[in-house]
Amino acid sequence: MTKLNEKNVFLQNKYNVTAFFYDILDYPWERQYRKWRPALVGDLRGKVLEAGVGTGRNLEYYHQDVELLGIELNEYMLRKAERRKARARCNVKLINEDATVMSSIPSSQFDWIFSTFMCCVMPDEIQTLAIEQFSRVLKPGGRFRLLEMVYSENEKIRKKQKAFAPFVEKVYGARFDRNTLQHLERSTTLTVSSTSFLKDDTYLLIEGIRN
Length: 211
Ligand SMILES: C[S@@+](CC[C@H](N)C(=O)[O-])C[C@H]1O[C@@H](n2cnc3c(N)ncnc32)[C@H](O)[C@@H]1O
Hints:
The protein is 38% helix and 26% strand. With 211 residues, the protein is α/β, with parallel strands linked by helices. It has a 7-stranded mixed β-sheet with strand order 3-2-1-4-5-7-6. The site of S-adenosylmethionine has 23 residues, from helix 1 and strand 2.
């Protein structure tokens, strides 16, 4: 790791343990996510940075014309992603890097920033740092696509989410009440172009462009 934001030490330590069980624990949700992943990355082209690559669940779905840099905070998650790299059709480089720092990554390099479920594990107070980095490393006109979990407005669904919330936070560091969309909307260099939900009003897809 080149440089780590001290606010992420806690999360990194959590994933030192979670990494060993991640794919097993996540299996019930992954059965749903794997139906979404091909469409989420399938139309991306050019130089793509995937932030919080995790165990590499998206790697096999990238188009062969993509040149992919995957960054990941936790070295054990990264090792698992390395094993999945063989399934990818495109050129993949994976590095241990903090999305709020990105000190090893030059500016204005990428056509796309892509991420699934990273911002919902990222403490709100450092999300603007990651957003600044997204903006810095994207080319002008470059685009971003982020998938995050949020609380539903539907009382029944929200109740279920609340019941799961302590587990989700304990194991993944994830929360349903992160304000990623609001942070992005306040950015002066990134513009949110669309938001949509993949399921109910809980899986929020945020897309946008570097001004
Ligand atoms: C819930 S997992 C999602 C993994 C993967 N994107 C997926 O869809 O299966 C969140 C991942 O983001 C990583 N992460 C969290 N904060 C990060 C940061 N600041 N920089 C890079 N990776 C980060 C975590 O280590 C973890 O692997």
